[in-house]
Description:
Blueprint: H1 2-8, H2 13-20, H3 24-41, H4 56-68, H5 82-93, H6 99-108, H7 125-139
Helix pairs in contact: 1-3, 2-3, 5-6
Amino acid sequence: MKAATLFGRGCIQADVARKLKVSRETVRRWHDVWKQKGRKGMKAAGRAGRKPCLNKAQMRQFAQELTRGPQVHGYETQLWTLERMAQVIKKLYGVEFYPQHVWRLLRGLGWSCQKPERQARERNNRVVRQWTEERWPRLKKKSAN
Length: 145
């Protein structure tokens, strides 16, 4: 729109390119549109690229389904994987996504990657706490001061 204003003031294309810090080719295209359609033709064309396969309501519903957990959707463990999420999307909405694209959807929802902390089944938290509080301090090297 700044270019349209400058064209209306009689600025030459080279000056418009310098002032707006764009290429002369871009300004030439803008000038052609401005001459043919005027200021209204200069308005943004809108969204570029394909429209999303899931709308905002479906994305909110998908996020709710994820919070319900994988076991609700027939999986044995409480661990979500990108493949499982893609399968849930296909089941709910009939849309196929590659697992890598599911990751983009999750980032759009504000989710992040979380890896489960691995612990031995035999782990005894009381014994671990006792070792770290009593035994470990005795084993640590003393400072040279």
